[in-house]
Amino acid sequence: MNDAPSAWRTATIEKIVPQTSRVSSFFLAPEPPFAFRAGQHVDVRLTAADGYQARRSYSIASAPENNRSVELAIEELEEGEVSAFFHEVAAVGDAVEIRGPIGGHFVWSVEDGGPLLLVGAGSGVAPLMAMARHRAARGSRIPTLLLVAARTWDDVLFREELLELEARGDGFAFVVALSRGAASRAGDHGRRVDAAIAADALSRLPASPLRTFVCGSNAFVETASAGLVAGGLAASVIRTERYGG
Amino acid sequence: MITRGFTGRRTPEDVAARVPPGQALTTDFPVLSAGPTPRIKLEDWSFTLKVGPRPVFKWTWEEFNALPQTSYVRDIHCVTTWSKLDTAWEGVTIDDLLKAAGVEAAKPFVLAHGFDGYSTNLPAADLAGDKAMIALKYDGEPLAPDHGGPARLLVPHLYFWKSAKWVSGLQFTDVDTAGFWELRGYHMVGDPWREQRYHDDP
Ligand SMILES: Cc1cc2nc3c(=O)[nH]c(=O)nc-3n(C[C@H](O)[C@H](O)[C@H](O)COP(=O)(O)OP(=O)(O)OC[C@H]3O[C@@H](n4cnc5c(N)ncnc54)[C@H](O)[C@@H]3O)c2cc1C
User: Fold this and answer.
1) Which residues of A touch B3 (CB under 8 A)?
2) Residues 42 through 81 of chain A touching chain B, CB cutoff 8 Å
3) What is the CATH number of the domain that holds B63?
4) How many angstroms separate the first and last alpha carbons of chain B?
5) What pLDDT score does A62 carry?
6) CB contact at 8 A, A208 and A243
7) What's the ipTM?
């Protein structure tokens, strides 16, 4: 049953692209490829020579429209068993095992409609990027706002591509909240996400969002979703994905 | 398939036997949930026991706290691959709860319901025999909202998503009815020692 959604498959690393000082994209070619929805994740499994295994979940950052190459944006954690392996050992041509797609809650497709509010911090932008890329690939004009929390402007994951997506003028915009750097673009914020920033994000959409996706560390998801609720958003439209911590 | 160059961080020998396959030890307490953390006021809190569709018993916060309280120190295992040893809980065992209600768990399955609309299903046998409780305290303190407070189900021998946060009641059922994550591809039982993570794991 190689086609069962959760069968382990071999996936070869085709390309490694550094994105920020701590996050790199790993493009994996699973064999065989599988269909997925924007927002879903895969489990990655690594096996040592003596059979010891470690597995972790990583969101798919690429759009479902191209499923031959699955992009994972992995942040290197100090002493992290799996993330440090990717950053320090893994090389193009190496193979790992992946299983997926997993997750049926933190998912969005253009058929679900909008407006859409996406809120992410650090590598938590990855599944939101899949949604933004899916939206663009489908030529959708659904009003979408992405609020990104990062330390500095250079830590904004997928920054150049986000600027390009915004420049299309098709209803996609992104706002940045920087905890350690001054905001350089008008409308960005030079502080951590708080209730006022959440309320500001809500006010930039033409109507209250039909769906809101919040992703990042637990502390971030707590603050951001509490801010959105304080800003008047119904808790029932907010879906969260917490990476831990 | 061996991964080139991967050695891994091994679980220390003395506790290795307590860590299920595919899990790694953590010292913090990560949080996972599908939506924002609900804040439930104690005066609005209640706990309902249902058999099939029929409510058979309901407790207020005060009444629930007057039930016999039990302490558990248990290892817990999250499907996202962290395990945590020796976590300390206090609350009302499901055995005591049924006794207080004068109900027999005559049905084979249970759906646990949460104030946030979350639900999870599990075999009734996994709640009986001093294996599970409705936990009110963690580490001697009232259970924090992001960990499921005021009260959560605690079924430490199954993956932790079965330990429903912000629990509002248990419903005994004849049919094994998929809960929130189970509808979305997760396992109907979720035994970490058998690595029952996703629906098609044996
Ligand atoms: C649904 C989901 C999607 C996710 N998507 C992504 C994603 O897209 N990108 C991403 O980067 N992450 C993602 N994550 C997080 C990812 O799964 C891992 O948790 C993360 O990469 C850390 O794993 P690790 O093996 O590197 O670190 P671990 O080894 O698990 O350690 C985590 C941290 O704890 C410390 N630590 C824990 N135990 C020890 C110990 N015994 N000794 C020393 N240090 C220890 C480490 O130093 C490290 O900082 C996702 C998580 C979930 C649940």
Assistant:
1) 46-48, 85, 94-97
2) 45-49, 52-57, 79, 81
3) 3.90.420.10
4) 21
5) 98
6) no
7) 0.85
